[in-house]
UniProtKB/TrEMBL annotation:
Residues 580-593 have a biased composition (Basic residues). This is Preprotein translocase subunit, ATPase. Keywords: ATP-binding, Cell inner membrane, Cell membrane, Coiled coil, Cytoplasm, Membrane, Metal-binding, Nucleotide-binding, Protein transport, Translocase, Translocation, Transport, Zinc. It is found in: Membrane. Residues 127-325 form the Helicase C-terminal domain. CDD domains: SF2_C_secA (cd18803). The gene is secA_3. It comes from Haemophilus influenzae. GO terms for biological process: intracellular protein transport; protein import; protein targeting; protein transport by the Sec complex.
Amino acid sequence: MAALRAHTLFEKDVDYIVKDGEIVIVDEHTGRTMAGRRWSDGLHQAIEAKEGVDVKSENQTVASISYQNYFRLYERLAGMTGTADTEAFEFQQIYGLETVVIPTNRPMIRDDRTDVMFENEQYKFNAIIEDIKDCVERQQPVLVGTISVEKSEELSKALDKAGIKHNVLNAKFHQQEAEIVAEAGFPSAVTIATNMAGRGTDIILGGNWKAQAAKLENPTQEQIEALKAEWEKNHEIVMKAGGLHIIGTERHESRRIDNQLRGRSGRQGDPGSSRFYLSLEDGLMRIYLNEGKLNLMRKAFTVAGEAMESKMLAKVIASAQAKVEAFHFDGRKNLLEYDDVANDQRHAIYEQRNHLLDNDDISETINAIRHDVFNGVIDQYIPPQSLEEQWDIKGLEERLSQEFGMELPISNWLEEDNNLHEESLRERIVEIAEKEYKEKEVLVGEDAMRHFEKGVMLQTLDELWKEHLASMDYLRQGIHLRGYAQKDPKQEYKKESFRMFTEMLDSLKHHVITTLTRVRVRTQEEMEEAERARQEMAARINQNNLPVDENSQTTQNSETEDYSDRRIGRNEPCPCGSGKKYKHCHGSRVARQ
């Protein structure tokens, strides 16, 4: 499925670019590259294979949250943007926020001209080039907006062929953004840009004299005054020519993006103009208009290269964009509904994690977990309120030995004490587990044990939460198939995710208690004895002219053995304590000698 999506739905220089042997995602809304970001579900690897670059492993999710639920974490929400009005319904539905339109500081005098439609893309590009030529002759700067890197490069080649000097601003040349934007307001300047279009910056009419001054090394006051004078002259030329002219080569799927492009011109009361050039081959038209409307519009073109302008055209475009916006809104709303399920789990996990971080003593929590875990294990072999004939004592003894390292003669207890019933047996097992744990605590000290408990709990929680997030992703990918069984995928997702979360919490308790119970504590005498044994072994090795490996060390479970009176086998552990086989450690050095 990922390979199919990579080859059919994702295009090079539209959805991504190949840079330095890596696939870099291009944000469809901003036109900027998103370095370090990768698609999930194997899609990024499929695209890497498609483009013939090194295929890297899937990133493991350690934490996830949707933008909507992230913003909901704040008690108060507010925002400011010049293009919020078209998304007012979504702000109200998702965040409960009202959108207020504030009047402009100065009157808007930009001339937003009617869209022009052409039969095909070639005729459209020809008209765009003629419009650019006219602006260049009148010394009016032009900003041409395209929807992708690919389209910006196509138009750039057409302008080169027409002999029109221009700059290109897209994800491939984002390092030059500041310089290109600074020059975009010069008389006769032509700039081709994707959605980047110098977002967040003003294109100053006449050019940016401050940017020019910054290029000079230690500029004098005379040079600065000269740049200012030149800017005033250019500014006057551009103002008389009509300000910055915006050309849109295609309507975007969202009106908000179109408004952002238009908003590059006519800022702070400056003059300006804008026009969108469209064709029946544009993606918006092909995908979101039915065949009947397209055929009707094709019949309207009677002369090759003819342009069409009408109010009906504006309605058709508005209808297509409304469909797209509704489609994307439904997608975001659907994603939020699924994320709301995970959001409750996320709150529970982070609340527990913060509790662990804020408290140095979690012994009460550990004791409660130990009680739950041992009772849960005992329940599997001694069901509550069951007859003794139904008890699996041998299985319980093996389970306690394998998982917790507890060798308990439960069978002997039952033979010796006929009055030992289910409840008292449970209490005895739990008491022994607590007693052994207290003995460890006495050996290492209370502070050290509290620190160890906290570390084990945090590490286990983090690891299991990462695994749970991966499992939730897999569940989300295939849950739609439940619809074929006449089941509601969202309800099934809620039910399955709750079951998985409950299992994760049970697994957390079990992992923590297993680790804490099985850990072996060495006394000071045992550690000193191990150190003496290591030193003796090093001395014997030196007597045999074998250099001691600097990285070798005696592990906690290693046992000393006297190798002085026998020959060491090639596949035996090396006596230096490195953990390697003898033939791969000091044995290889002896062979060379």
